[in-house]
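Quick one:
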Amino acid sequence: MTDDECIASQARQIMSMELQIKEYREMVSAIRLHLYEICSPLNDNRLGYTKEQLGPFFDIGRELIE
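Output:
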């Protein structure tokens, strides 16, 4: 593999990874919306989850912020 081929391959990998990161960030935003939007568990808990049931939602929310 020549230097040019190696550089081109690395550039393609970087572009692919950047696209993947963008998609992951969009997914994180969608998850946050599901956790914190109106009627969702961490906003007004309209579905009436118990404290024990809300625990995993708070854990997920903390992981998304960090």
